[in-house]
Structure formats: C-alpha cells, structure tokens
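Could you join me in thinking about how sequence relates to backbone shape in a protein? Would you write everything just below, so we can both look at the same thing?
***
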Amino acid sequence: MTRFGGDEGGQAVVLLGLALTGMLVVGGLGIDAGLQYVERRHEQVAADSAAFAAAVSMVDNWSAANRATLATAAALDYAKRNGYDDDGLTNTVTVNIPPTSGAYAGNAGYAEIVVSVNVKTAFIRILGSSYATQSVRARAVGGIVAPPKDYALIALAKTGSPTMSLTGNAQVEVENAGILVNSIGTPALTTTSNASIEGSVDVAGTAQALGSVSGTLTTGASQQPDPLSYLAAPTSCGTTYTAVNATGGTTTLQPGCYPGISASGTATVLLASGTYVITGGGISVSGNATIKDSTPGDGVGVFIYNGCSFFPSSGGTCGAIGQSGNGNIDLEKAGTGQYNGVSIWQPCANTNALTVTGSPKSGIETTGSVYLPCAAVNVSGNGDLETGSGQLIASTVSAVGKGEIEVEWDATSSTPDRMPAIVE
C-alpha cells in the first residue's frame, strides 16, 4: 500500500511539472503575440503617415515630371521619423508608385507603403531557431482623391423639389461643362415648354423637363459635395467705412468693410481692386446705376464677401444682393490669393436670395465664380446673370419669364483643390 502511494505522489509531481510547463509556454506565446501586436500597431502608424506624406507630395508636385520620386522621398522620410529607416536588416520600407496590389493597383495617383520588421521573440524561440524572429508587416495606400466632376452650374441643395426650375421663356446656357441638380427630389428639375437649357444636365432626383435640353439629360446621377467648401472665410477686412448710398455721379470705393453698398438713379460706383466685406446691408443696384470694377484687367480684380452684421462672427442682420431696372453689376474676378477665380461669396449665415429682375441688356456680369451655397439665385423679367471663367453655385436656381443665366466654365481658374487621403 505504501509503495503504491509513493508512485501516485511521483505521478502528481510529474503532472504538475508538465502543467506548469504548458502554462509557461502558453503564457510565453501570449507575450510574444502581444509584442508582435504592439509592433504592428506602431508599424501601421508609420505606414499611414508615410502614405499620407506621399499623397501630399503628389498633390503639391502634381505637374512635376519627377512626382513619383519626390513622393517616394517624402514617404521614406516620414517612415524614418517614426523609427523605420529601411536599413534592410531590422526593417524594410517599400514604396510602390503605382501600387502593386489592392484596389488602386496600377494607378499612378496613389502610393503603396509596406513596412516590414523582424521582431525577436522572447519565448517562442524554444520551438527552434527558425522561430527566433517573426516578420511583422503593415501596409497603407495614400493618394489623390479625385475632385468632383466639373460643372458650370450647380444647384447644390441635396433635397427639395424642385431645386432648379425654368418657366416662361427662360434660358440657361452653359459652356465647357454641364449642370448638376444635386437634389434627390421628385422632381428636382422642372422646365416649362418654352424654356430651354443649352448644355448637359445631371439630376440626382427626377426631372420634369417639358422644354428643350440641347445636351444629355441624366436622372439618378450621383450627388456631389460642394466643390468650394474648402474656402476659408475672411476674418478681417482692413478699413471699416460707412454705408454707401449713391444716387448720382461717380463714387470710387476702396477695399474694406461696408455695412452696405447701394447705387440708384444714374450713379456709378467704382470698386478699386481688392476684397470687399459687406456687413449686413447687402448690395443693390437699380435705375440706370452701375457698380463695377474700376480697373478691369489688372490681374487683382474684386472679391465680394456678402456677410452679416456680426462679422467676423456669424449672425446678426444679413442683406441680399439684388439688381433691378437698368442697373448693372460688372465685376472682374479676384486674380490673386485664396479667392482667386471667385467674384462673389455669400456664406451660409446669409440665406437671402440673389435676385436679378432687370430690363434687357442689364443684370449682373462677373468673370469669376458666384458662390451662394445656402441661398437661392432667382432671375426674372428680362434680367441676365452671366458668369464667365467660373461657376455658378447656389442652393437653388430659378429663371422666370425671359430671364437668362449664362455660365462659362474655365477649369484653369475654378478647379477644386486635389485632396490627399489614405484610401487603404
């Protein structure tokens, strides 16, 4: 009996030893797995940073013949900043432009970054020398997010019915690009039998087009983001002036802040080149008056920001931009700075419609973009709204009677910024 009890005790010791060994092995494997997980997280951060750096470089050097070389250098630099110097021994950093795998394989606008590291194991090496190190790999792809499709005229609102309408003998004409009606409304676009559109139209919703459309009319099109949403509003305006109410003669204004600008009767208001911030009173022209750029063709041009009375904060009272009678507004686009290519911007804090209701051969004419992302553009009577070399972007657009809207797109002055992004 005693002999059997001693055997059982020995067996228990052996079993306990085996159990402890198993626990140590499992625990060691867990520690090694944890080390590899931490390393992979670090690698992924480095790969993401390198991919984004390559994308930024490609945006900045889009027209350069050595764009890929510059992007590769940027990626390797950011990988090194994160501890991976591509020494070929402890780590490797591979930059593929274009990517060799994934959804963007073969696309030269994207860079694939692969970071590989040999991680020394703490416990798994007991299984043999081949397990002394384990390869850990992270991958990221960065590139250029394609700008939205070029449109000359955009009715930007994503809901509503209709968000673009033509009635009577109204006309809309676009050149070098089409029209986007961004609403999913039913219908989003309406035209009456005598109205006409010269150009192609993409409509996110449905269309009730009884008038003529010279180009292709596509319904169910993809909604698009605001192509000018990257613009930053001015935060100051230099000199602050009193409101202008000209009724005759010639008045020359300098850039700055104005509570409002009004021209009526036979007045001529000349705007010296620069930025004009309107703080609550809007801009109006009527009678036989004119508001225009004083030095067209100087390359600087005029930029108008139609804000509200609490500028530079949002809120307060806000005024509209309006034309009536034989009045005319004639503006040369901003030719320099962040507002290059833009003539008028009315921020979303100001939801007053831009209206053109004038006589034949009168209206608003600009050589740059007119941008009212949260307000309507309404043209009626015999009024004419003409935008050259840019876009007309408004929440909704309507033309009534013999109202006419003409927009000529010029990608060189109104192309949305290319944006860098991590895509994989």
Notes: The chain has two domains: 2-145, 151-416.
